[in-house]
Amino acid sequence: MVAAKCVLFDFDGTLMNTWPGIERTIRSTLKALDIPIRESVIDRALVGIPLSKVFQEILGSDSDSADLATRKYRELFPLVGIAGARPYKGVPGMLRNLRSGERDLFLVTARNETIARQMLSDHGLSGFFNWVRGEREDEVSDGKSHMVAEVLKKFSLIPGECVLVGDRRYDMDAAKSNGVPAVGVTYGYGTKLELLEAGAARLAGSIAELEGILLNTDSVLRITN
């Protein structure tokens, strides 16, 4: 039985509804590159997948076009996508209450770190976080396990005294590989089945439910093998 002294949050689908801006940027990218849009593959399930893999999903085996589309997307998102993001209702209050409850908060996201910081700032959320770790220009995207490991090491955190919150299996995988219990949120872009199969210790269907789990010092968070 442990109290979560620190919380590592995912971004897209956990704190922010970013799909409207992501969809707009994907469509703008394909249009700019004169690539036909296949409606069947433009889906919210793309959110949370490393960007390099998103266009592999959309374009299939054409790796050169996928690389080009990835670069164009990164160029366009600040122009056409960033304004489409909004925090889920209740997020500012939840973060405020967690800080009042002496939790240390971290953001760990596969999103570009500079863009993530800007989006937090745009919505008045920056001050709640001890640190933000996102994808950087000089690294190859391969998930966020190494990001979680970096946060734990940098701040001398005990994995069992932390909890990671996310909406996709990639978040659960990163938590498990670092010995951190995970809470899956079902209001984002993943499914209940996906999260449970990936090892979520608890599920939250709303911000209010998530806040209750994170503030309940008597809650038991077990790592699912």
Tell me about this structure.
- The mean pLDDT is 89.
- It contains 9 helices and 8 strands.
- With 225 residues, the chain is of the alpha/beta class.
- The chain has helices at residues 19-32, 51-59, 63-81, 91-100, 113-122, 145-154, 169-177, 192-197, 207-215; strands at 6-9, 16-17, 86-87, 104-112, 131-135, 162-166, 182-185, 202-204.
- A 6-stranded parallel sheet has the order 5-4-1-6-7-8, with helices on both faces. It has a two-stranded antiparallel ribbon with strand order 2-3.
- 40% of the residues are buried.
- Helices cover 43% and strands 15% of the residues.
- Helix 5 links the parallel strand 4 (104-112) and strand 5 (131-135).
- Helix 1 packs across helix 3 (63-81), helix 2 (51-59) packs across helix 3 (63-81) and helix 4 (91-100) runs parallel beside helix 9.
- The chain folds into 2 domains: 6-17 and 86-215, 3-Layer(aba) Sandwich (Rossmann fold); 19-84, Orthogonal Bundle (DNA polymerase, domain 1), CATH 1.10.150.
